[in-house]
């Protein structure tokens, strides 16, 4: 278990920005941190839950599945990312699954406590609204790329997104500081592993990326961004 105070995560959350100390303390008092092994499910599609969550450590993946068992990875979540807020407005089952890609720790707060704070401090509803609008905009952008962009553009977009979230300065470029397999990219870009591998080889030959110690390094972000165009 990690040594971290729930109050610190709650204070830094955009959901609870501007709330007074008593409200933050109320949320922190009801919070707990759960450990998950790699591959553990925070919740599954169709499950009814009554909690909201925040990533403390590790990396989680949000995905949807078809009736045939095929899944589409929507987004990966990292430290400080809050999720699960639809439960604050509805008892409907979850429409996505969230799985730990690495061992992870997740902060959990019961829905009822969050709603009590929101009723006492309506500012929280505005915070949630703004956060939800930003997330919806990103989802629409993702849908547009998946529906209308060729595979090269989809792979390039996913690499740029990972660089934004996990990028660290490296010699000659930006290193995506997580292990990103071809299977990961295939699931994220809706392509076969073989086709994604071919795209990555092409990007490498063009001098856009290279692989160092199981990490992808973006050497030419502008060139990679130029690949992100509708087909």
From TrEMBL:
Record key words, sorted: DNA-binding, Transcription, Transcription regulation
Database matches in PANTHER family: CRP FAMILY TRANSCRIPTIONAL REGULATORY PROTEIN, HTH-TYPE TRANSCRIPTIONAL REGULATOR ARCR
Keyword Cell wall biogenesis/degradation on entry: no
UniProt key word Metal-binding: no
GO cellular component terms listed in the entry, alphabetical order: cytosol
Domain HTH crp-type: 149-222
Name of the protein: Crp/Fnr family transcriptional regulator
One Gene Ontology MF term: DNA-binding transcription factor activity
Superkingdom of origin: Bacteria
Domain Cyclic nucleotide-binding: 15-135
């Amino acid at each position: 278990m990690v040594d971290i105070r729930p109050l610190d995560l709650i204070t830094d959350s955009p959901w609870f920005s501007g709330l007074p100390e008593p409200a933050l303390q109320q949320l922190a008092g009801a919070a707990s941190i759960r450990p998950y092994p790699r591959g553990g499910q925070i919740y599954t599609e169709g499950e009814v839950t009554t909690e909201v969550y925040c990533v403390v450590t590790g990396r989680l993946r949000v995905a949807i599945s078809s009736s045939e068992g095929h899944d589409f990875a929507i987004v990966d979540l990292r430290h400080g990312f809050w999720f699960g807020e639809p439960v604050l407005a509805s008892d409907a089952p979850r429409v996505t699954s969230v799985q730990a890609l690495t061992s992870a720790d997740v902060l959990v707060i019961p829905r009822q406590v969050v709603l009590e704070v929101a009723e006492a401090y309506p500012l929280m509803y505005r915070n949630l609204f703004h956060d939800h609008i930003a997330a919806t905009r990103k989802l629409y952008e993702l849908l547009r790329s998946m529906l209308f962009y060729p595979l090269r553009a989809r792979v390039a977009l996913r690499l740029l997104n990972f660089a934004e979230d996990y990028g660290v300065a490296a010699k000659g470029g930006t290193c995506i500081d997580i292990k990103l397999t071809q299977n990961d990219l295939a699931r994220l870009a809706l392509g076969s592993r073989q086709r994604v591998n071919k795209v990555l080889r092409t990007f490498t030959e063009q001098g856009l990326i290279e692989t160092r110690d199981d990490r992808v390094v973006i050497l030419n972000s502008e060139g990679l961004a130029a690949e992100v165009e509708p087909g």
